[in-house]
Amino acid sequence: MNSPYTEGPLDAKICFIGEAPGVQEVSHQRPFVGPAGHLFDNLLSRSGIVRAECRIENVVQERPPNNDIWHFIDLRKAEPIITEEGQKYLSSFYQRIDNCKANVLVPLGNVPLWALTGLKAITKRRGSILSADFLLRNDHTPDTKGRKVIPTIHPSAALRQYLYRHYIAHDLKRALRESETPDINLMQRTLILDPTFNDIINYIKYCHDYPSVGFDIEVTREEVSHISLAPMADHAMCIPLFEGRENFNPHQEAAIWLELAKLLQNPKVKKISHNMAFDASFVYQKYGIRTRPIDDTMIAFAVAFPDFPKGLDFVTSIYCNGEPYYKDEGKTWFKNPFKDFMQFRRYSAMD
């Protein structure tokens, strides 16, 4: 049975989830009928999705005072604050989602994203293919871990920021494609994160056999701490040179840089990087290595879409088929920004 602010078949392939009804929804006793709802309908049509064939939900089933969702679920601080009424709405929401058999759940905004995955930062996570993991479990909360989630920005935000409409439409098209199956099928990548000295030398030589190689550096305290090479989209190595201490002796590190110089200057192998101006300039200024020929995906994207963000995080959300958000944009560091060095190495290899 539907509450006033949910509608659509329980066996729909896609379930859209909002935060709470607004004044227009309360007036019409239906979800998504105000200005944001009209824009939502337009974006659905633009993306090839039929609203009547979708399930539509809201986490909270009443209009928050002054439209302030924080009266129920407050995500403004690191540790969420859930009121007693908010907890009741969450428990009811989880039961309804358990009854919904959608292949893909599409949270619209931060609150439903957090309710499904425990994650926040919707503008960073949008377009990612994630796995649901309800954190607020109790004896009455169904275990729905593993269900496919593709978050996007709430249409109300797109009323204020026009460019968001393009982002939402892109994410909706991904949700439509992904709605054919409940399975999460992300590219399986081989990331070599703890190579020996011999592994590194052999891998660099191996890269000479490819027409192009992805190239990225991380800089810590004005020193190259990590170098990553990727001759294929699903295969990369991170070379961890410096992590608070040297990982190789001076003779080994010199040998690594000599082999890298041969690759970076090989005219038959194109080096591809995002913001190559940084990587190539730093390597030249530090070691006198001229990286060429080169392609810069940041420049290419900025030329093609000058109004869009050009950071690697955003470009990944557009082109990498739902690869979950893994980074905050950065090239230079004072210290390891991650929990451990293996995570930093993975970050570098993914870049």
Name some characteristics of this structure.
351 residues, alpha/beta, Uracil-DNA Glycosylase, subunit E, Nucleotidyltransferase, domain 5, 2 domains, 7-stranded mixed β-sheet, 5-stranded mixed β-sheet, 13 helices, 14 strands
Structural class: alpha/beta
Specify the number of helices: 13
Kindly report how far apart the N and C termini lie.
47 Å
Q: What's the architecture of the largest domain, going by CATH? A: 3-Layer(aba) Sandwich
Q: According to CATH, what is the class of the largest domain?
A: Alpha Beta
Order of helices and strands: EHHEEEHEHHEEHHEHEEEHEHEHHEH
Fill in the CATH topology of the largest domain.
Uracil-DNA Glycosylase, subunit E
How much of the sequence lies in strands comes to 15-25%
Average predicted local confidence, pLDDT: 91
Shape descriptor reads elongated
Integer count of domains: 2
Output the radius of gyration.
23 Å
Q: Report the sheet with the most strands, covering strand number, pairing sense and barrel closure.
A: 7 strands, mixed
